[in-house]
Amino acid sequence: MSSLPATAARHALLIGIQNYLDTPHFRGRGIQQLAGPHNDIVILKELLLSERFQFPQKNINTLLDEQATHTGIEKAFQDLAARVQPGDFVYVHFSGHGSEHDNFDDEEISGMDQTWVTYGSPDAGSKDSRDIIDDQINIWLSKIGTTTDNIVFVSDSCHSGSVSRGLLPGVRAIGKDNRPYPGITRSDNLKPVGIRIGASGDTENAYEYRVGGKVYGRFTWHWAQSLSMIKPGETWSDVFHRTEALMREDTITGLGVNKQQPQIASLHSQHHNTLVLAGEIPENLNRIIVTAVDEDGQLRLNAGHINNITKGSVYTIESAADKSTAVKITDVDTYTSKASIISGGTVEVGDILIEQHRAYSFDPIPIVIEGDGLVGQDQIDSFSAGIEEMLDKNEYRMVSERQNDGFIIRLFRPEQRNGMYVRETGNSTLPKSHPDADLQAWVMTMQEDVLDEALHVNLAGGFEQGIDQLAINMGILVDLLDLKKLQSSPPDIQIRAHEIIKDETCDESHQTDDCFRLKNRYRITRTLDLNQLNGQQLPQGSILGFSVANNADEPYYIYLMSLSLRDGGFVQFPYGGRTAEYALIKAGESRKLTDGGALEFASPGLEIIKAIISLRPLDTRAFEFKGVASYRSTVKVTTPQNHLEQLLNRTARRAVRRYAPEPSEWGTIQAEIMVTEREEIQ
Questions:
Q1: What residues does 577 pair with on adjacent strands?
Q2: How far apart are CA 669 and CA 487, in angstroms?
Q3: Which residue ranges make up each domain of the chain?
Q4: Which of 194, 229, 339, 499 lies in disulfide reach of 526, CB 3.0 to 4.6 Å?
């Protein structure tokens, strides 16, 4: 991609389809209506029109539902190709169903073409009754690419057919179209143009996602959130990888086994590092500003859900010396919010606000109980009544149907053969059911993303024992979710993770920088900042040691913990028995955290390494809990002493809405690691 000339224009084509007609095109393909594509287009259009991106209104073409037929989309690409001038920037975004079709030219490795599912036509013989195949999209993009190579193309849809056993509400895929398509002229000389971004891999689902009572594409929401954080000098690769990180940080949707992994591609990998809009991003846009003051004194702000504003949070005026004037967020929309003055003097239009206390809401998590055809309704009802009685009402609430957030407890009889679960296809989310198999309860997200195997409960011994164990497991899960949720920008503290291996040469006479001395002798093979470890895979048996460097101007207490469903939450540093002051790292001090030993990953699954950095000492018992490998017994803390301890203590935090301390008083650094069996590393 080339840099934008000073006269370059900005163009966008935004396509959203959620209301699919019941036509012969879709019958037998498991079509589901979607809820999010229109909202996707709304937030993207608002963002492109904003001061941040400055797209002219006349250069943004939106196609919704009946406008987005096969021919309608083709014409929009043709119009775009005719309008674009050399060096212009083009953004194309599709939100809707994806599918697949037998590859007509043997070009695809998988043997399948990926498709966009268009609005459709009742006429089974017309072009508008057919999906748009990826080869066609490539031809249309290439015509634009003859004029400009500044193209970013985003598709928030599944790149294949259904990968779950039953197509689900909120999954952007329908079944394969088996009809023959007329031949498509394809030039072997066409090369992919621009940067291409997909919401999921070729064998993954793309999910919908609820925020503030509205539904969006999970990828599109986080993509827009990442774009809204952009600063001058950032590249498309920066935006993409921040989107990945935001998706991983989702409290619930980031926990499942079957991840939605966005993809980025271009003809040359260096294109990923092209500056967004040639770096022409205005400065100082990531500020919360009062844009209006209503007659009743209600304040209107320029930030909302997309900027991670939370209802109930308290802000002060940045320029005020005494910080006595405080406002509380009363209502939050996508890009805007409202606030009321709760103390101090007046607030004027143009005042810049800074967060004083973030409000965390620990609302009960929805749970729905489901069973397959081999489980009777009486069994489902009996199980539902039993688990509802056992679960903590502050943690979970029972619902009768699937929602966008929360969990499914699935009752079924998964078939096993030679110790392995049997699936319909290699991409099926759930195993097949068999009437002779043991009845089990599995925990999944509302999109059928299966959680860690450690949460599976065998019900062959009866519901009572199984419900007791499942209630224990669900309590552990909420502990993990709550602690995962707490995040704040850290001060200038560097936490480093060191992959280490045993090495007897690291003895007393050979203590070099690459030696890591514990009870055994270890050598460092790789060192990463903790945040660089986020999203990586490590094989079972990997061992990590840690070190810290305080580059801030004042001392901080450092607490390093490991969180997992299997092993619970435990403090890695400072090790048990140490005084509170041992966790204090002075300004300018560096230290290898050797007293707590190293962390060995013995079991597959999600592991979270979290550092909490605080100006005040903390009672570490507040964030310790046992995993599913042992009976759950959260350590009780008598009286949490400050805001942060209240957030970390499960009894205190779930009693009422809780506030974090001022951002300057604490911070977190977090890495989510998928521990896999060695042969699973990709």
A1: none
A2: 8
A3: 10-279, 288-357, 365-481, 486-680
A4: 499
CA–CA separation, 393 vs 508, rounded Å? Answer: 56
Give the C-alpha separation, 654 to 396, whole Å: 11
pLDDT (0 to 100) of residue 631: 43
Model pLDDT for residues 82-93, shown as the tens digit of each residue = 999 999 999 999
HEC sequence for 216-253: EEHHHHHHHHHHHCCCCCCEHHHHHHHHHHHHHCCCCC
- In 3D space, the residue among 439, 452, 407 whose CA is nearest the CA of residue 565 turns out to be 452
CATH 2.40.10 given to domain 288-357 = yes
Give the burial class of 460: count Cβ atoms within 10 A of its Cβ; 0-12 exposed, 13-18 middle, 19 or more buried.
exposed
User: What H or E segment, with its residue span, contains residue 561?
Assistant: strand 556-564
Closest residue by Cα to residue 331 from 357, 366, 303, 355? 303
Q: Using CA atoms, how far apart are residues 677 and 370, in angstroms rounded to an integer?
A: 30
DSSP string, 589-624: -EEE--TT--EE--SSEEEEEEEEEESS---GGGG-
Q: What is 10-279's CATH topology?
A: Rossmann fold (3.40.50)
Overall average pLDDT of the 392-420 stretch? 89
CATH of 365-481, one of 3.40.50, 2.60.40, 3.40.1130, 3.30.160: 3.30.160
What ranges make up the beta strands (E) of 493-555?
Answer: 493-502, 515-517, 521-529, 537-539, 543-550
Per DSSP, the three-state class of 379 is helix
Q: In sequence order, what E strands does 134-213 have? A: 150-156, 195-198, 208-211
Asked if 105 contacts 183 with a C-beta cutoff of 8 angstroms, the reply is: no
Beta bridge partners, 670, equal: 610
655 compared with 236, residue with greater pLDDT: 236
> Rounded to a whole number, what is the largest CA-CA distance in the chain?
83
Q: How far is CA 101 from the centre of its chain?
A: 29
Q: How many CB atoms lie within 10 A of CB 86?
A: 13
Is it true that the peptide bond before 574 is cis, omega within 30 degrees of 0?
Answer: yes
Identity of residue 132: I
Candidate from 203-212, 326-335, 338-347, 656-665 with smallest mean pLDDT:
656-665
| Domain 10-279 and domain 288-357 have a common topology | no
Position 166 scores a pLDDT of 30
Over residues 628-650, the mean pLDDT reads: 55
> pLDDT category, 73, cuts 50, 70, 90?
very high
Whether the Cβ atoms of residue 537 and residue 607 lie closer than 8 Å to each other: no
Q: Which amino acid appears at position 126 of this protein?
A: S
pTM score, whole prediction: 0.76
Give me the pLDDT at residue 625, please: 81
Name the CA dihedral angle for 396, 607, 234, 668, rounded to a multiple of 10 degrees: 70
pLDDT tens track for 429-488: 788 999 999 999 999 888 777 888 888 999 988 899 899 999 999 988 988 888 888 888
The confidence score (pLDDT) of residue 44 equals: 97
Q: Integer distance in angstroms from the first to the last C-alpha of the chain?
A: 29
